[in-house]
């Protein structure tokens, strides 16, 4: 028995549909530009309110247009149908030269476990923004397809899965699906339908606990919508890396004075930098860039904070966002920026007046991520940026 299964009714990209997942962007304007230049991009379906013809409309009001866009893409041959398949997946190239192996498949929703006393093989480890989940539920109920996968790390059969995926690719020849992402990485998919091969791969992929590395909102949306299964890419720890996950503050709350003074008032150490703010090399210190320059900030760790609560991202949310700024973490003035954006880009956003502050945060250590999962605690929201990212719109699952 396994919690991982082939996709009963899949739609495989024929080209021009691949897209960054909707949470990989610093602003909606970037999404609009991509949809305008690539009308079959899955972004036009997943973020219909960002389509050029829908700007200014509420997300809910653009859902019918999302369904129409997907139907048109299928009718025009942007996808080809396939039944009972898994999609062996390789990501290669890019500046770091890192290679990723994984597999598109369906995973049992009832295996999701969020606490130690909740049975299940799929460990979801991060808090979510509930409004985002509601949007995902409304979308999938309208379009009846899953477009972006949840990224899962296989923890017990990882070595065997890695070797099995490599063997399939070696024997399969050129990939029928090829797509390049914004970082120059090549994404390739081999649809596999031969029953014995599918059985071996799904058994290995489901051979132990599966940790949600990316897609916490998508997995909860599948639960909320009462789906039996959700679309996932199952991969191995060897295939992924952890990058920083930063924050931009779009504007200060009304009456906000000096942010550095407010930080000092709560016991933080604030030291002016002689060089531009960069990504800190070690946790415990964050770099702050404002119109007044760059600062190294060490937030105080409250006496009642331990484990997850003492991680940088948790302290930033609790002390800086909640206490100093008086904002909720879901406030639209807080923008979450993944590791694909450089420190220079973040500083430029502030210097250009697009934001008032950039918070550069050291990446979570892999050991800390593993420890939190083993202790069945939740990671702070938007704290782990795994790369490379599985690309949406390459393999769709029809509900």
For the structure shown, list the relevant keywords.
single chain; alpha+beta; Conserved hypothetical protein from pyrococcus furiosus pfu- 392566-001, domain 2; 2 domains; 11 helices; 29% helix
Short description:
This protein is α+β, with helices and mostly antiparallel strands and 399 residues long.
Structure notes:
- The protein is an alpha+beta fold and about 400 residues long.
- The chain has helices at about 30-35, 45, 65-75, 130-145, 160-170, 195-205, 215-225, 260-265, 310-325, 345-350, 365-375; strands at about 5, 5-15, 80-95, 100-110, 110-115, 120-125, 145, 150-155, 175-180, 185-190, 210-215, 230-235, 240-245, 245-250, 270, 285-290, 295-300, 335-340, 355-360, 385, 395-399.
- The chain has 2 domains: about 5-240 and about 385-399, Conserved hypothetical protein from pyrococcus furiosus pfu- 392566-001, ParB domain, CATH 3.90.1530.10; about 245-360, Conserved hypothetical protein from pyrococcus furiosus pfu- 392566-001, domain 2 (2-Layer Sandwich), CATH 3.30.1760.
- Helix content is about 30%, strand content about 25%.
- The strands form 3 sheets. Strands 1, 2, 3, 4, 5, 6, 7, 8, 9, 10, 11, 12 and 21 form a 13-stranded mixed sheet that branches. The chain has a 6-stranded antiparallel sheet with strand order 15-17-16-19-14-18, sandwiched between helices. The chain has a two-stranded antiparallel ribbon with strand order 13-20.
- Strand 9 (about 175-180) and strand 10 form a beta hairpin.
- Helix 3 (about 65-75) crosses helix 4 and helix 5 runs antiparallel to helix 6.
- The mean pLDDT is about 90.
